[in-house]
Amino acid sequence: MSTPQADRPKPRGFARYALALIPLVVFGGIAATAAKMLYDQDFHGKNISEIPSALIGTKAPELNLAPLEGSNLPPLTDSAIKGKLTLVNVFASWCLPCREEHPILTELAKDNRLNIVAINYKDKNDSALRFLGELGNPYAAIGVDPNGKAAIDWGVYGIPESYLVAADGTILYKRVGPFDDVSLKEGLYPAMEKALGKPVS
């Protein structure tokens, strides 16, 4: 007895071929996105580290983080930044770009018009203390964020990341990635000058 044509199983060759193409399509999409970002940066002058934030121009998220034990610094709460032009820096001891950026933060801390505080992101207490012991401590307060909840509230994209917050609590500027000479001159300093009404060098 023959099997009707409609009941016969359909060839699976095409389905297997289609499944094999899925990883290639996904990879192609990722590669195209990366290429577009590099093209924008190289040929259109866009700095992909200066990622816009929906928080800019709004009040900073609430801060109520426990202190880094052993640092002899206060916890990071709203009172630590209230009434001061503040740079909120998100760092971790395991973050190599954070290590590269740290000397710049140390220099910035010499300007008494700028209050620098930190969110220690998903770090081990002892490791963070060693990091600061080796490289120095530019922070007036440090709050620990072991589960990353505060980082989510602040819209952290990748560390290091920094936010300039006005004395009234408004977020003025965001930097994704470590500071360098260009980002200082073209990003942070102009934002500070606008807030202070005075030149910053």
Automatic annotation (TrEMBL):
It is found in: Cell envelope. Keywords: Cytochrome c-type biogenesis, Disulfide bond, Membrane, Redox-active center, Transmembrane, Transmembrane helix. GO terms for biological process: cytochrome complex assembly. Pfam families: Redoxin. The chain crosses the membrane at residues 17-39. It comes from the Bacteria. Its main location: other. InterPro entries: Periplasmic_diS_OxRdtase_DsbE (IPR004799), Redoxin (IPR013740), Thioredoxin-like_sf (IPR036249), Thioredoxin_CS (IPR017937), Thioredoxin_domain (IPR013766), Thioredoxin_ResA/DsbE_sf (IPR050553). GO terms for molecular function: disulfide oxidoreductase activity. The keyword Hydrolase does not apply. Belongs to the thioredoxin family. DsbE subfamily. This is Thiol:disulfide oxidoreductase protein CcmG/CycY. It comes from Rhizobium gallicum bv. gallicum R602sp.
